[in-house]
Amino acid sequence: MIFKRHLIFTLCTIYGILLKGVTGVSGQYPLVQNMTVTQGGTVNMTCRVEYNDNTSLQWSNPAQQTLFFGDKKALRDNRIELVQATTAELTISLSDVTLADEGMYTCSLFTMPVRTAKAFLTVLGVPEKPEIDGFIKPALEGDKITLTCITQGSKPAADLRWFRNEKEIKGAKEVNASGKTFTVRSSLQLEVNRDDDGVAYTCKVDHVALSHAPQQATEVLEVHYAPHVEIISSLSIPQETQFLKLECMSKGNPSPDPVTWFKDGAELPDLERILVEGRELTISSLNKTDNGTYRCEARNHLGVSKDEYVLYVYDAPTTPPPPTTSPPPPTPPVSSALRPHASDPTVTDTDPNALGQHGTDHALIGGVVAVVVFVTLCLIIVLGRYLARHKGTYLTNEAKGADDAPDADTAIINAEGNHAHTEEKKEYFI
Ligand SMILES: *[C@@H]1O[C@H](CO)[C@@H](O)[C@H](O)[C@H]1NC(C)=O
Ligand SMILES: *[C@@H]1O[C@H](CO)[C@@H](O)[C@H](O)[C@H]1NC(C)=O
Ligand SMILES: *[C@@H]1O[C@H](CO)[C@@H](O)[C@H](O)[C@H]1NC(C)=O
Ligand SMILES: *[C@@H]1O[C@H](CO)[C@@H](O)[C@H](O)[C@H]1NC(C)=O
Ligand SMILES: *[C@@H]1O[C@H](CO)[C@@H](O)[C@H](O)[C@H]1NC(C)=O
Ligand SMILES: *[C@@H]1O[C@H](CO)[C@@H](O)[C@H](O)[C@H]1NC(C)=O
Questions:
Q1: Cα(96)–Cα(41) distance, integer angstroms
Q2: CA 47 to CA 34: how far, in whole Å?
Q3: Residue of the CA atom closest to atom 7 of ligand 5
Q4: Of 302, 340, 304, 142, which is closest to residue 229 (Cα–Cα)?
Q5: Ligand 4 contact, 287 CB (< 6 A)
Q6: How many other C-beta atoms can be found within 10 angstroms of the C-beta atom of residue 405?
Q7: pLDDT tens-digit profile of 191-228?
Q8: What is the largest CA-CA distance in the chain?
Q9: CA triplet 324, 329, 331: central angle to 5 degrees?
Q10: pTM above 0.85?
Q11: What share of residues in the chain are helix, strand, coil (percent, to 5)?
Q12: How far is the C-alpha of 230 from the C-alpha of 307, rounded, in Å?
């Protein structure tokens, strides 16, 4: 215990002596800090002396010019001002900082000998707003374009990032130094297609000096392409008296407007029931005379596109709402739907009701007879085939023997390699 207390006491004493030596005897020295400031900003340069008699402090710039000697201004520069001058501290401020202000600043304490401290002032170059080059407006589908984004004046070199509609994509970066700052360029190679139409390409600048106001440039691609049309019908099974709307969905740039409608390769018949408004063709009440091939065409200077819709008007539903009846209704929607573009309408034309209950019975009997006849036929065929196959075996065996036999006798002997075969042969010869 006693030993331990002694040790602590000794350590404290040594520490006290060291502290006194640093601060008391030779502790009168200036303390400064490296500073970083953004171009155009203001920075304070502070020099402190913890224990000072009335010795003077001085700030000088990288060119060794005295800026302030105590509270006395030495250099005529409006940007440099005194913030605080005491025996313990000399603080000056430098506003509208330029890249030329960067360098090593010196604080001197005029003791004997003079003690100095050096602070490095780093000036950040603010990147200029980026510019995107290489845009062709409008671009044609298939064009290969190279977008280039350039920003100048950054220090240190800025980073450029590309975004295609908010999604980041990789570009090829190139950095060149020009004086104290850097010119950064990033390029992007694209082969445009119609999906690029209306897509925004953004180039963003990342830089330490831009934490508050990020810089970016955006260009929206415009791609010209030939139209593509598609007809969309409001009904899957058009029936008489129903309202039908055919919409000609057209995509193309420049927008192919208006679209043109044709029926069976000719102009639309001038009927009051058929109305064309913009891209829509409507028939207020379908009639069987309306069936035919409807075509929609759209064109721009890059090409033409057409789509066809074959209208086949089915009978009107006789029982207005067929709710739970499972047997086939007068107009069977399922079978009709299977071939809505059928060219031969005769089957659906004949009234399904003509085939009544009696008809069904006759059909049943006929079916049974047909099955019996079919089975009999099959039996006959199978029997015939059975006999024919055995005869075939015999012939083959004979031929096999003949292949490698010098004369007919040997051939027969060769063929008799198997007893079963010999018996077969005998049977047939009888
Ligand atoms: C410089 O110091 C003064 C006084 O302490 C303060 O008001 C001012 O905001 C400082 N300027 C900068 C840029 O730190
Ligand atoms: C500093 O100067 C003031 C007056 O100018 C004087 O009163 C003071 O004693 C001086 N201090 C030292 C440590 O010399
Ligand atoms: C201050 O900057 C100088 C020059 O860049 C460097 O050598 C020194 O280590 C820096 N000092 C501190 C404390 O960061
Ligand atoms: C960088 O310098 C090279 C060679 O001098 C030059 O070919 C290139 O165009 C420059 N790039 C930029 C972004 O200035
Ligand atoms: C269909 O048109 C014909 C001739 O224009 C007309 O006689 C018939 O009544 C129409 N059918 C329906 C269901 O409107
Ligand atoms: C239209 O369909 C009806 C059957 O629904 C058929 O009788 C008629 O021949 C068809 N007319 C044309 C012009 O195809």
A1: 5
A2: 11
A3: 287
A4: 304
A5: no
A6: 15
A7: 999 899 999 999 999 999 987 777 999 999 999 999 99
A8: 149
A9: 135
A10: no
A11: 25, 40, 35
A12: 6
